[in-house]
Specification:
Number of strands: 17
CATH architecture of the domain at 2-170: 3 Solenoid
CATH superfamily of the domain at 2-170: Hexapeptide repeat proteins
CATH topology of the domain at 2-170: UDP N-Acetylglucosamine Acyltransferase, domain 1
Order of helices and strands: HHHHEEEEEEEEEEEEEEEHHEE
Structural class: alpha/beta
Distance between the termini: 51 Å
Shape: elongated
Largest sheet: 6 strands, mixed
Amino acid sequence: MFKNLREYLNSVFLRDPAARSMFELLTVYPGIHALAFHRLAHGLWNWRLHWLARMFSQLARWLTGIEIHPGAQIGRRFFIDHGMGVVIGETAQIGDDVTLYHGVTLGGTAWKKEKRHPTLGNNVVVGAGAKILGPITIGDNARVGSNSVVVKDVPAGATVVGIPGRVIGPKKDDTKAQLREAMAKQIGFDAYGQSSEMPDPVAQAIDLMLDHMHLVDRKMKNLSSALEKAGIKVNLEIPVLDVNNLEESPATDYPQRDRPKENS
């Protein structure tokens, strides 16, 4: 149990740069509290103790502002950031490593007792205020932009924005978008389900930074390779960023003779 809890809290650290300690996560994060209540309520629901399960979910709603029906199926490492106003319906199904922001609704569009709520694949990010309605499927690694209203299936790896939601990327041949995603994962960054196609100057500035980081990384590798071919041994490798500990690994540090002298 404690191993799974540590794994979960570590996954939250990677998705929320404001988190400072495990104690803070356990005591002041309503998304984590709501998920803990739901695990208990869902177990009671499966044991057919429906009224008691609903009471626990109602208590969680009062305490956290997050409403999760005890019948909803939620995978591992699910995280709700900020949390207020999130609603998850009875027949919703959520995969592993999914992130929701405040104001998200996974709602139904029918009154019949059948599958009427969305299914979210693994590693899906849903931006603040988005509404995903009906028994539709959001594919693995998809992104739903803030305040979007999605009523149709979204393919895996796609980004959807607008009212009604429309798929805007990434394009299958968009190599630059794939490089940005790889660099963003390397530094542990994922901002509110945004993408470069959205009219957001902050998101576009971040994309330019990721492009520049990738270009510098590639040029350093080319320079190091050229110097080695010329018989010049210079370590130009960039230290590996340890996202978990937020520090640089000493494995690729400069040799003692190549270190720059400290200012006295």
